[in-house]
Design a protein that fits this description.
This protein has 119 residues and is mostly helical. The chain has helices at residues 14-27, 39-46, 50-63, 86-90, and strands at 36-37, 66-69, 73-76. The protein has one domain (14-100): Arc Repressor Mutant, subunit A (Orthogonal Bundle).
Length: 119
């Protein structure tokens, strides 16, 4: 007899948990656009080693939450209200209701010092 309709939840990886913590800090304004993400400070405050933190940075960079500049560091990406679409729009909106997020046209998130532009 086979067991059906049973799903075992897989635990989240440490790097995924770290990425989620950083993402929440960005969305809640604790980490502001343009802020440099200092590895030593984050590893100490989150209680993790550099490896899961660096894996989280890669994940957050792919998602557009941070910008990694080789040999310079990682920074919180700068986005404008008009660029808040997709996953960001559906996450907790601490400052105003999500339905007021503005223009729904897709735009690229910017790193520090990059001008605003549409895709």
């Amino acid at each position: 007899m086979a067991i059906r309709n049973i799903q075992i939840e897989r635990p989240k990886s440490l790097s995924r948990m770290v990425a989620e913590e950083i993402k929440v800090a960005i969305l809640n304004g604790v980490l502001k656009p343009g802020d440099k993400l200092v590895e030593t400070e984050l590893t100490q405050s989150l209680g993790v080693s550099r490896t899961p933190l660096r894996e989280a940075f890669r994940e957050l960079a792919v998602e557009g939450y941070i910008t990694v500049i080789p040999h310079k560091g990682s920074y919180v990406s700068t986005i404008s209200e008009g660029e808040v679409t997709g996953p960001l729009l559906h996450h907790e909106c601490p400052r105003r209701p999500c339905h007021e997020a503005g223009d729904s046209s897709p735009q690229k998130r910017r790193g520090p010092g990059e001008p605003s532009r549409s895709l």
